[in-house]
Structures are given as C-alpha cells and as structure tokens.
Amino acid sequence: MAEIQEVIVSRKATLRDAMRRLDQAGIGILLLVSDEGVLDRAVTDGDIRRLILAGHGLDEALDALPEAKCITAPLGATRREALELMNRHGISHLPLVDERGQAKKLLMRREIDEQVLLSTPHMGDAEREFVEQAFLTNWIAPLGPNVDAFETELCAFVGSAHGAAVSSGTAAIHLGLRLLGVGPGDKVFCSTLTFSASANPIVYQGAEPVFIDSEASSWNMCPKALERALSTAASEGWRPKAVIVVNLYGQSADMDPILELCAAYDVPVLEDAAESLAATYKGRQSGTFGKIGVFSFNGNKIITTSGGGMLVSDDKEIVARARFLATQARDPAPHYQHSEIGYNYRMSNILAGVGRGQLRVLEERVAARRGVFERYRDGLADDGLLEWMPEPDWSFSNRWLTTATVSSGAAHDSAGIIRRLAGEMIEARPVWKPMHLQPVFAGTRYFTAGNSSVSEDLFERGICLPSGSNMSEEQLDRVISTLKTLLR
C-alpha cells in the first residue's frame, strides 16, 4: 500500500513537479487534491504527456488539467469490495476517502488481490521424481511399486505393521467398518465433533450412528460421555458394533481411558486419524491405537496425494482383506470372477508417488504448522480474546489447523469475524458442525458427560485460521493484524 503523502499533489504543482513525483513514487499515478485537501482526480503520466502535446510547458501548473471523475471507495471498504470496484471499472489503483472526500489511502491491485487460504497443498521436489518414475516405467494404472513402497514407508513412520493405500480417508473408514463386521441394524458410536466423512460410512453399511460429545481439555471424544453411552446401551440390552474415535485438528483423543472402556465392553475401536498424522499420544503415533487406523491425504491435509487415504492395522489378515475388497473383490481366478461385492478404492501408482515425496518432508511440515500456531499465539497474546485449542500434557499435536474459540469480550463473535476476514480475502472457517446437529442425522442419539454439550459450545464459538505450512511471514502478519482490529 502506497504512502498517501507520496502521491498527493495540488493544482499549484507544475507539470515538472508532477513528472518528478510520478518517477519517485514509481506506481504510475498521483492524486490531485483541492486547496481543502478534497480529492479531485487521478493524474497519470499519460495525462502529463497529453498536456505537453497540447502545447503546455513543464513549468505550467496542473490547473490546466480538465475535470475528470475519480473512482473512489469509502475508507472502511474491504479488500474484496475494493477489488470488485477495480474490476468493474478496469482500474488498478483505488483511493479510499473519508467522509469529507479527502484521500487517506491508495490501494493497489497487486498488493491486495492475494487471498490467504485456509490450508493449501505444499509440494516439494521429491514428488516429481517418483511421479516421473511412474511415467517412465508406464506404471500409470492403480497399483504399482509406488503404492507398495508408500504403504511400507508410511507404516514404518507410524509404527504399524501393515497398511493399504486407498482412494480416500472415507474409503478407508468404510472398509474398516466392513472389516469389523458392521452391517444393517448395527449401531456404531462416533465422535460428534467431526467432518461428515467420519460418520457417513456407518450409513453406507446400513448401520445407525450414535454420537458422543467432546471433552473441553482436548476437543476430542469425552471418555465420560463414552462411558455413559456404553452403560446405557448395556442397560438396554445391546452394544455398539464399533467405536469411531476422531482425532480432531491434528490432536489425539485421550486414548487410554477410551481403550479401557471399549475393552471392558468388548467393542473394537476404529481410530480416525485423518487429521492427525505425525501427532502422538504419550509418545506413540496417532492412528495406531485402535484395531484399525485411518489416515487421509486430501489436498488440505498435512501431507497430500491430491486425494487418498490409508488403512493401517497390526492385523495382517485385516489389511489383506482390505486390499481385496478395495480391488473390486476379484477372486483369484484366470477370468474375472467375484463372489462378493467389492469397491474401486485402491490408490493409483502416480498419486502414491506424490505421497512418497510428501512423506519425506512430513516432519518439516509439522514443524512449520506448529510454528504458524506459535506465531498466532504470540502475536495475539496481548488481546486475550482467543482461547486456543488446548494441548494436554500427553499430547503432541501436529497443529494441522490453528483453532480457537472467541471469548465473549471480543468485538465480534466467531461468525462475524469469519465473515469480516472473508471481506479482507482471508479464509477462515467455523469449527466442525457436530454430527448430531446435521439435518441428515436428525433424530440420532447423542450422549454427553453431563447436562451441557461441549461440542455445541465449540461450534458456536470456534474458528479455524489459515494454517498452511507454506504461509509467508507477510501473510501471517496480515492475518494477525486484521484479527487484532476485529477482536478489539
């Protein structure tokens, strides 16, 4: 943004002065103001050239310039409003004026048209090598050496014995539920504070979801709410077929009490670690605690394969069965023979190559995301108007997204802040809307630890901030500065 005093000239200035100022400012425009400081018009080098061609001398005043309408915007205009005005009139500079018509700021398109997105893919150099290898060897179709290696390398990183690379995290959850024997008429417990991909596969299997509240200390499944749900089910003469525990925003749930409860009631755990790759619980990698673990490599995740996921387990037979079902359940016969229904869920060899390259920089990506969180925390510490997602002593979060709740003392609530950030071309989002509040799951059962709902409060007050590992210092400063203004 140009310093306004560098580009303001009066009508008493000479053409020579204007040319010198244009050269010094280096942005191709000056703002001509009246004696009272009211903006009259813009002045370009073309305007000066036309005066000279018309016979005016360099020492004549700018009074010779004819009247011309200047496109302006009010001082409080957002970036998005300013850009819309620029696009409408085909201009690249826009003065912002106060109520008296005095120019206070000059916006330039090249400085304001960048959007800060929530979480973008962050590619490196190694990905290209593995993808080119797939092209050179003609391993383009699903499966191939990159798929095999990606499964091996990711399992080695997280400490799981076996893995099956598939087309999405949702596909991995669906396979996991089928492998756990979930079918029509069954009930499956699931964290309510999550994306719908955690719960939808329950319905794919004809089963019924039952949702479990969060705990304030981790935002993840509350062991006390789970205990209440399990106890209620037992008193009614049934038990869930499985429990899906979601590790939200890059942080593990409190797994020890959850696993203890599920073992006591003999219910298997499927751990949805779609957002928590490289996070740990008491030093052990997230996604390795349940009977089955699931990771996602969607484009906005901490590492990506564009679209993809993986199912992991220490049970060799479970993973072998997952691979079989994910490859259309084709029987081992010389012809195409199928004895049961399968799915087209396997990952392509090209995308697995991307994953292999991404895996090599995973720890760097985690460090970068945690660094983004620390910048927000330190930059907004004086305000005390954001309460950050807690990181308990037993947790190491990958801080996939920096999330917080907005306190009641802030100038705007979370919805207002998100809306105003959008006006400044900064993408922020609400915390996940709990599944028990979703229209598609209306009427499902929902268990809390007490009389209040933690997940509903987090949804009401929560906000997710731009958190990409490739965010620049300038982008972070811009978001923090804008937030300071909005919070106050």
Short description:
This protein is an alpha/beta fold and 488 residues long.
Pick out its properties.
single chain, 20 strands, 16% strand, alpha/beta
Topology, element by element:
Layout: E1 8-10, H1 15-25, E2 30-33, E3 39-43, H2 45-53, E4 73-74, H3 79-89, E5 93-97, E6 103-108, H4 109-112, H5 126-136, H6 145-158, E7 162-166, H7 169-179, E8 187-191, H8 200-204, E9 208-212, H9 223-235, E10 242-246, H10 255-264, E11 269-272, E12 280-281, E13 284-285, E14 292-296, E15 309-313, H11 316-326, H12 349-359, H13 362-379, E16 386-388, E17 395-396, E18 402-406, H14 414-423, E19 446-447, H15 454-461, E20 462-465, H16 473-487
Parallel strand pairs: 1-2, 4-5, 8-9, 8-10, 9-19, 10-11, 11-14
Antiparallel strand pairs: 2-3, 5-6, 7-15, 12-13, 12-17, 14-15, 16-18, 18-20
Helix pairs in contact: 5-12, 6-12, 7-11, 9-10
Written account of the structure:
This protein is 35% helix and 16% strand. With 488 residues, it is α/β, with parallel strands linked by helices. The strands form 5 sheets. An 8-stranded mixed β-sheet has the order 7-15-14-11-10-8-9-19, sandwiched between helices. A 3-stranded mixed β-sheet has the order 1-2-3. Strands 4-5-6 form a 3-stranded mixed β-sheet. Strand 2 and strand 3 form a beta hairpin. It is elongated, with a radius of gyration of 29 Å. The mean pLDDT is 94.
